[in-house]
Amino acid sequence: MIKALRGPMLSFSEQPPTAGEGAYRYLEDGLLTIEHGRISQIDDASRLAPTLAPETVIDHFPGKLIMPGFIDLHIHYPQTQVIASYGAQLLEWLERYTFVEELKYADPDHAAAGARFFLAELLRNGTTTAAVYCAVSPNSVEAFFAESERCNTRMIAGKVMMDRNAPPGLRDTPEQGYADSRALLEKWHGRGRQLYALTPRFAITSTEAQLEATGTLKREFPDTYLQTHISENRAEVAEVARLFPWSESYTHVYDRYGLLGERTLLGHCIHLTEPELQRLSETATVAALCPTSNLFIGSGLFDLQALHRQPRPVRTGLGTDVGGGTSYSMLRTAAEAYKVMQLQGQNLPALEAFHMITCGNAHALSLGDKIGRLAPGYEADIVVLDPTATPTMRHRMETAAGNLPETLFVLMTLGDDRAIHRTYVAGDCL
Ligand code: GUN
Ligand code: ZN
């Protein structure tokens, strides 16, 4: 059956909006139709509405804004009860708070309840796709994909691999990490909307043998993703140099085992050197930037201008990094990215921020032909935003209404889950 949404609509094309004309399409009164979970038509309501039965049209005109569902490039599902943990920087934060919680995810019931809460929270915040770290236990991955399959969300996730510098119950071995990851990806990668990511936590918690085994898996299954952390915190960078004395840099460690590439997502990328940025650019590796986390854990300020610098631009995107990050909302995440850039005399125009959290992050995931746009053939993952969701927003919108960049800036600066009016997953409102 055809279902249709009507209202103001905004969608970006592949180009970042700084590329000018044609980089986005805004319909003041648009209408899109959904068939079998995909968008089938999109046009001005005046043209499309007469061809449809009125009772099939869900009307969000005027006042709302219909956009592609948000995409989160980096988040940890077993950290829903780590979020808002006080007073520690990265390495102490991991030991004191994070590992304790992730241990609990070996229990299938705890994992299932955690996955249910987590996915509901993502959808409540308008996020329809995310690259997700599970825990070390395969049970945690099974629970996550089972819940994502039930919601029919397009998710990328994987089992964390750690074979050192972690508590005994939270360690695998190179052989076990390889075997468990392989079995999980053979079961879940490409099943329905689910996709698998090889997930060595970071260089501190994997031996050379485990990184080697990860490289083997990446070669054996080249269309899976690989996600890990890099250069988030200065003490972390120093520890990696100590653990890998032969390495020229943190990036060199991952490069040595063949872990870089266009399906590799590196969380944080704050303290990288120029040769490292060059290598990420050459290998088309993606930097997943996580501003709320970097500010909260006190890690530092990512330098987006330096990352994008020609002639060696690095591919980038935005992630929440919950529970180091402090919000599931990609609106809040965009607001904090803006502030991180302001602190360095840089700017993040609202059009670019909304491009990043939709089409830009879809391209960062090599899924730019499936999600992140409102266009025929695209999967119907859609968010309906309310720029007047709170008294403060409503009051501010009295002077911004009718101005698209200003409306978007109000949404990202003042908005959060309260500004998410509806979330549609493959055409169904969840
Ligand atoms: N580095 C290694 N593991 C983690 C994690 O869980 N969160 C963050 N923010 N950084 C990490
Ligand atoms: Zn992280």
Please characterize this protein's 3D structure.
By secondary structure, this protein is α/β, with parallel strands linked by helices. The chain has 2 domains: about 5-70 and about 375-430, Urease, subunit C, domain 1; about 70-365, Metal-dependent hydrolases (TIM Barrel, Alpha-Beta Barrel). Helices cover about 35% and strands about 20% of the residues. The chain is built from 15 helices and 17 strands. It has helices spanning about 45-50, 90-105, 110-125, 140-150, 175-190, 210-220, 235-245, 250-255, 275-280, 290-295, 305-310, 330-340, 350-365, 390-395, 405-415, and strands spanning about 5-10, 25-35, 40-45, 55-60, 65-70, 70-75, 125-135, 155-160, 160, 195-200, 225-230, 265-270, 285-290, 315-320, 380-385, 420-425, 430. Strands 6, 7, 8, 9, 10, 11, 12, 13 and 14 form a 9-stranded parallel β-sheet that branches. A 4-stranded mixed β-sheet has the order 3-2-1-4. α9 links the parallel β12 and β13 (about 285-290). α4 (about 140-150) packs parallel to α5. The longest helix has 17 residues, at about 110-125. The protein starts with a strand and ends with a strand. The mean pLDDT is about 95. Zinc ion binds near residues 74, 321 and 324.
Give a short overview.
37% of the residues lie in helices and 22% in strands.
Query: Which stretches are poorly predicted, pLDDT < 50 over at least 5 residues?
Result: none
Total beta strand runs? 17
Average pLDDT metric: 97
In CATH terms, the superfamily of the largest domain is: Metal-dependent hydrolases
- Which hetero ligands occur in this complex? guanine, zinc ion
Q: Give the helix proportion (percent range).
A: 25-40%
How many helices does DSSP assign? 15
Morphology call = globular
What is the radius of gyration computed over CA atoms, rounded to a whole number of angstroms?
21 Å
Strand content: 15-25%
CATH topology of the largest domain: TIM Barrel
Alpha carbon gap, first and last residue: 18 Å
Proper CATH architecture of the largest domain = Alpha-Beta Barrel
CATH class categorisation of the largest domain: Alpha Beta
